[in-house]
Design brief:
This protein has 80 residues and is mainly α. It has four helices and two strands; from the N terminus they run H-H-H-H-E-E. It has helices at 4-14, 18-25, 29-36, 44-56, and strands at residues 59-62, 71-74. The protein has a two-stranded antiparallel sheet. Helix 2 packs across helix 4 (44-56). The chain is globular and about 30 Å long. It starts with a helix and ends in a 6-residue tail after the last strand.
């Protein structure tokens, strides 16, 4: 499951505001702000919607492993 920092990182890397993420995921802006600030949890289904929107735009969520903590990468653009 992704964490608040990963959502912030993904939004920053993709240049997506909370407002845009909220509109595209049908999640209230206040819910996203609260979760990113660590002031509340989020239901799994709601978190899944946020993740789906960010992944569709190119975010790749990386789990923690022996090399480091969780993070975010951006998919390479397809070259034609």
């Amino acid at each position: 499951m992704i964490n608040p920092a990963q959502i912030r990182m993904a939004r920053a890397g993709l240049g997506i505001s909370v407002r845009v993420l909220a509109e595209r995921s049908s999640v209230a802006e206040s819910t996203i702000h609260r979760f990113e600030a660590g002031r509340g949890g989020m239901q799994t289904g709601t978190l899944d919607r946020l993740q789906a929107v960010l992944e569709a735009d190119g975010a790749v969520f990386v789990s923690a492993d022996a090399m480091g903590g969780p993070g975010v990468r951006l998919r390479l653009a397809e070259v034609n």
